[in-house]
Design goal:
The complex is a heterodimer of chains A (441) and B (323). Chain A is of the alpha/beta class. Helix content of chain A is 30%, strand content 23%. Chain A has 14 helices and 18 strands. In chain A, strands 1, 2, 3, 4, 5, 16, 17 and 18 form an eight-stranded mixed β-sheet that branches. In chain A, strands 6-7-8-9-10-13-14-15 form an eight-stranded parallel β-sheet. Chain A starts with a strand and ends in a 5-residue tail after the last strand. By secondary structure, chain B is α/β, with parallel strands linked by helices. Helix content of chain B is 38%, strand content 14%. Chain B has twelve helices and nine strands. Chain B has helices at 24-44, 66-77, 98-107, 122-129, 145-159, 177-188, 205-209, 225-229, 253-260, 264-267, 289-292, 299-318; strands at 55-60, 81-86, 112-117, 134-139, 166-170, 192-196, 220-222, 234-237, 274-277. In chain B, the strands form two sheets. Chain B has a five-stranded parallel β-sheet. In chain B, strands 2-1-3-4 form a four-stranded parallel β-sheet, sandwiched between helices. In chain B, helix 5 crosses helix 6 (177-188). Chain B is globular, with a radius of gyration of 19 Å. Mean pLDDT of chain B is 92; it is low at 1-11. The chains are: A alpha/beta (441), B alpha/beta (323). Chains A and B meet through helix 6 of A and helix 4 of B.
């Protein structure tokens, strides 16, 4: 079965392609990227005129919630959301119920994936049993069962000695350790970034130093063990400085940033999309703006976007964290932290291209080839024989976020009603269309 | 009086959540209404029954003596019913959500909700859940707007103006809703606010250095009480809000009492200085007994004024006057 994505502008960082071209796939695998042709026999043609043709996005950080929290999301709904966002591979975080701390549990999730997933799901194994304080999992067994990385997200590995052990194990296996870097005793009761906004709102805050201190610790331990550390959802300029130094020192450390940390600030807690008016909007204390690590200041956003441009931050990852209505329809400090982000991710970061803060080519690299390299998978580029995973993007499409139309069960986003420009309009996974915007109601 | 537009939602309920959206002349109008209420009461021994037929529900999810009794008295003095909802004894213990609790109170015929909660932002959440006016009786460390009206009235009683005064606020500012509301309002009137507290009860050095948010950016911070009260017209003393401290507590009571408690000796030289405390006072910790019982102390006057301030606020949320 031949599929040709024709007439579009192909951007493939892995093969250094940025030109008008047609992508040819056979039986679900990439065949070639060729000069635009006039016609193709015996092929399903997907018309990509006016669109950007990118490899399907790879998300290093998704919470699918299944097994256990199926009211929030399932493998089926989470991967449907991924497809809508242009993601053809997602890495499922292990903080499910039960967590991915045993090979049998990983095996169970694999069977759910086989049965229900709309796109590829890679499994991240847990660092400790029951995500607890110090009993490490059998990472070798988890890797054999299919885990491609290890994390305890959203709980930090608090004890440095445990983090050291985890890095030692992972370095043997050749997989990255992904630690949610927030020093718990500095987080305390904090529910948003500790800054002037938290002060004005009377909410307890989390200082940037909670992230910077643990990030520094993790980097030192990565150097000690020569292990691959991947820093998730980096949110502060302070932690970024440690990362910059680590990279300058030649350490094998990677990092991701989320679309919300690349665009939104702590002002979004005040409602009104971060605009400060006279007094508080009725939408103030928007629980949908509660996330760990919290939304930071404009100075942090600016530092992160520049680091993304330079590639110091290697990848964009969503930290898709769906929650049920009852988890968010409550007081800010009682709400579950997290943003349902798969379906708005590209729209949010596309604005960085519109504002000339990063080139489209670089942004696509951060969404495709770079994350694929971090998990060491043959993905994220149109190499011959690789899975035909393709995202078609309309960079000019203006749209308004409506969470009622999400495929995700999680409607929890601070972006409801927000205008975005740039959208994935079609997603192809293994040569089959898994999302087509024109089929949306 | 102009309506504070940001506090009115699309269903046209008029809320009273904090004084942030009020310009100084709107605050002045409320203060004037409160003073008129006080004069009327002094003259007639009673207030006009303008709120007959209204059912005010007091939903207090946090402890309260003054504010709760004050709102109940205010509502009843104006002819309204007051229903005292004790959250402690409610079905929230059985897992009922805050939203469903609020909706139930509304379904039971509440025509306004007065609410106090340990979570900052609760009244905003309540206003989003309901179709009736919401009045904030204190939300976490964020705001206590009716207390501020009482405190401003008390300053007015002594100094006859709110402009160009120097006001010191001593104590646990970081964790205090009284401090935030009071400081914001005073700055709007063009007065100077000096806050004195130990470091762990102020915003961090990093936050203070970069503070641009109005009006908080105009607060002057010090840890020297003498400097703060020098030539000040009023001193507001705050309770140590240990229940809101991150762990470990910002300062032990004994250490705080020794170094930071306001004593009569600290204010003896300032004849015109009035001492305010919103209560409850941790006598001996925030405020020494000699200062609390001195002639400078206006604590009981604040309580009296609070009643009339709350009457004015209840009339405000029920009023239908145009902009």
């Amino acid at each position: 079965m031949r599929l040709v994505v024709a007439g579009g502008h192909v951007i493939d960082a892995g093969r250094d392609i940025a030109r008008s071209a047609d992508v040819i796939a056979v039986d679900g695998l990439i065949e070639d990227v060729v000069a635009p042709g006039d016609s193709y026999d015996d092929a399903e043609i997907v018309d990509a005129s006016g669109l950007i043709v990118s490899p399907g996005f790879v998300d290093l950080h998704t919470h699918l919630r299944e097994p256990g929290d199926v009211a929030k999301e399932t493998v089926a709904t989470g991967t449907a959301a991924a497809a809508r966002g242009g993601f053809t591979t997602v890495c499922a975080m292990p903080n499910t119920n039960p967590p991915m701390d045993a090979p049998e549990t990983v095996g169970y999730l694999k069977s759910l994936i086989e049965r229900d997933a709309r796109v590829r799901v890679e499994i991240i194994g847990a660092i400790t049993k029951r995500l607890g304080a110090d009993e490490l999992t059998d990472m070798y067994a988890l890797a054999d069962a299919g885990a491609i990385a290890f994390s305890n997200d959203g709980l930090p590995v608090a004890r440095a000695s445990v983090m050291r052990r985890a890095l030692e194990l992972a370095s043997d296996i050749g997989a990255p350790i992904i630690n949610h870097a927030e020093e718990p005793s500095l987080v305390g009761k904090g529910v948003m970034h500790e800054g002037e906004i938290a002060f004005g709102l009377g909410l307890p805050g989390v200082p940037a130093e909670a992230e910077a201190a643990m990030t520094a610790r993790d980097i030192e331990l990565a150097a000690l063990t020569n292990a691959r550390l991947h820093i998730p959802h980096l949110s502060t300029a302070k932690a970024l400085r440690h990362l910059e130094r680590a990279k300058a020192d030649g350490l094998n450390i990677t990092a991701e940033a989320t679309p919300h940390h690349l665009r939104l600030t702590d002002r979004w807690v005040m409602g009104a999309f971060g605009e400060i008016g006279d007094g508080l909007d009725l939408r103030a204390y928007d629980a949908n703006a509660r996330v760990n690590p919290p939304l930071r200041t404009q100075a942090d956003v600016d530092a992160l976007t520049e680091a993304l441009r330079l590639g110091v931050i290697d990848a964009v990852a969503t930290d898709h964290a769906p929650h049920a209505l009852i988890d968010k329809e409550t007081m800010f400090d009682a709400a579950s932290p997290g943003i349902s982000g798969l379906e708005t991710a590209f729209g949010l970061v596309a604005q960085l291209v519109h504002e000339d803060k990063i080139t489209l080519g670089a942004l696509i690299e951060r969404l495709t080839y770079a994350p694929a390299q971090i998990i060491n998978r043959e993905l994220g580029t149109f190499q011959k024989g690789y899975s035909a995973d393709i995202a078609l993007i309309d960079m000019n499409r203006e749209w308004v976020v409506d969470s009622r139309r999400f495929a995700s069960k999680g409607r929890n986003t601070p972006l409801d009603g927000f205008k975005l420009k740039g959208r994935v309009v079609k997603t192809i996974y293994r040569g089959k269309v898994v999302y087509d915007e024109s089929a949306d109601d | 009086m102009t309506t504070a537009a940001a506090l009115t939602d699309s269903r046209s309920a008029r809320h009273f959540l904090d004084l942030d959206a009020f310009k100084w002349d709107d605050i002045w109008a409320l203060l004037t209404a409160a003073r008129e209420q006080r004069e009327r009461f002094a003259k007639d021994g009673a207030a006009e029954q303008t709120l007959k037929g209204q059912r005010v529900v007091g939903a207090f999810f946090e402890h309260s003596t003054r504010t709760r009794v004050s709102f109940e008295t205010a509502a009843k003095s104006l002819g309204a019913e007051f229903i005292d909802f004790q959250a402690r004894d409610s079905s929230m213990a059985k897992g009922e959500s805050p939203r469903n609790t609020l909706r139930t109170l509304q379904a039971l015929g509440a025509t306004a909700l007065v609410t106090r909660h340990a979570s900052a932002g609760f009244p905003y959440f309540a206003a989003r859940c309901l179709d009736i006016p919401v009045v904030n009786a204190g939300d976490g460390a964020h705001a206590h707007p009716t207390q501020t009206l009482a405190d401003l009235m008390t300053i007015l009683d002594k100094h006859d103006t709110l402009r160009d005064l120097k006001v010191a606020i001593a104590g646990d500012f970081l964790h205090s809703r009284v401090a935030r509301s009071f400081a914001s309002a005073l700055i709007k009137f063009g007065s100077q606010v000096v806050a004195v507290a130990p470091a762990s009860m102020q915003p961090s050095a990093a936050v203070k250095a970069r503070m641009t948010l109005k009006p908080y950016a105009q607060i002057q911070w010090t840890n020297n009480l003498g400097d703060a009260v020098k030539e000040a017209h009023a001193l507001m003393v705050l309770r140590v809000h240990r229940e809101r401290h991150q762990s470990p507590p910002a300062l032990a009571f004994a250490a705080y009492a020794n170094r930071f408690a306001t004593r009569y000796a600290d204010i003896a030289d300032s004849k015109g200085l009035i001492v305010l405390h919103a209560g409850p006072v941790n006598e001996g910790v925030d405020l020494a007994s000699d200062a609390l019982r001195s002639e400078n102390s206006q604590v009981e006057r604040q309580v009296e004024n609070g009643l009339f301030a709350r009457m004015a606020v209840l009339r405000y949320v029920f009023s239908e006057d145009a902009d």
